[in-house]
Amino acid sequence: GALVAVAAAALRSGAVPGPLEPLYLRRPDAVEPGARKKVRT
């Protein structure tokens, strides 16, 4: 539908796309994973 039309227009215009970013990093409250935690045995 509409998304395909917008994407096709952008591809035809030769616009350079921005860097790909995983969806889970796009959420406003998302943070990149920190250091791994030690496991207690």
3D architecture notes:
The protein has 41 residues and is an all-alpha fold. 39% of the residues lie in helices and 0% in strands. It contains 2 helices and no strands. The radius of gyration is 18 Å and the shape is elongated. The protein starts with a helix and ends in a 15-residue tail after the last helix. The model has no long low-confidence stretch (mean pLDDT 78).
Order of helices and strands: HH
What fraction, in percent, of the residue positions are helical? 25-40%
Straight-line distance between termini: 54 Å
The tally of helices reads 2
Instruction: Give the rounded overall mean pLDDT.
Output: 78
- Biggest beta sheet summary: none
Tell me the Rg in angstroms. 18 Å
User: Which parts are unreliable, with pLDDT below 50 for 5 consecutive residues or more?
Assistant: none
Strand tally = 0
How would you sum up the global shape? elongated
SS-derived structural category = mainly alpha
The portion of residues forming beta strands comes to under 5%
Secondary-structure topology with pairs:
Layout (H helix, E strand, L loop, with lengths): L1 H12 L9 H4 L15
Protein name: tRNA threonylcarbamoyladenosine biosynthesis protein TsaB
Organism: uncultured Pseudonocardia sp
